[in-house]
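Per your request, structure below.
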C-alpha cells in the first residue's frame, strides 16, 4: 500500500473512532419492510425515536429498537460522565442495505417450480450530538 493510501486509512480509522454507531447484519426481514421502519426515525431525537419504535405495530421495529439501544450504549461507553438527556443526541444516519438472499423452490402446477427469494438486510444507525463543544 502506498504512503498516501496508508495515511488516508489511518485518518479514516481515527474518524471512525469518534462516531457512535451500531450495525445489524443478516436480519431475516425484507429490506423494503425494514426501510419503512428506519425512515420513521431518521433525523429524530433519540428518546423520541425510541418511543416511535416502541409503539409501532411493525415487526421490524422491535429489531431496530434493539439496534438503537445498542448505538446508545456505544455512545455511553465513550461519554461516561455525560447524561443522555443533556446531550441532544439524535439519529444522524440510518440506512438499510440488502443482505444475502436464500433461494428456495416452491412447487407449482403442472410439474413446474417457482423460485422463492427469502431476503435479508443489513441495518446501520449512526448517532450524533447537537451540542457545540467550546474549547
Amino acid at each position: 500500500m502506498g504512503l498516501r493510501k496508508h495515511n488516508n486509512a489511518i485518518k479514516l480509522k481515527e474518524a471512525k473512532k469518534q462516531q457512535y454507531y451500531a450495525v445489524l447484519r443478516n436480519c431475516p426481514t425484507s429490506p423494503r419492510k425494514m426501510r419503512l421502519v428506519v425512515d420513521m426515525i431518521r433525523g429524530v431525537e433519540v428518546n423520541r425515536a425510541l418511543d416511535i419504535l416502541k409503539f409501532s405495530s411493525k415487526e421490524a421495529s422491535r429489531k431496530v429498537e434493539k439496534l438503537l439501544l445498542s448505538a446508545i450504549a456505544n455512545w455511553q461507553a465513550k461519554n461516561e460522565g455525560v447524561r443522555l438527556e443533556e446531550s441532544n443526541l439524535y439519529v444522524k444516519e440510518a440506512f438499510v442495505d440488502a443482505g444475502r438472499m436464500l433461494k428456495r423452490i416452491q412447487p407449482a402446477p403442472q410439474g413446474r417450480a417457482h423460485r422463492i427469494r427469502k431476503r435479508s438486510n443489513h441495518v446501520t444507525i449512526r448517532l450524533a450530538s447537537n451540542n457545540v463543544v467550546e474549547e
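Helices lie at 3-17, 31-41, 46-54, 60-78.

Regards,
D.
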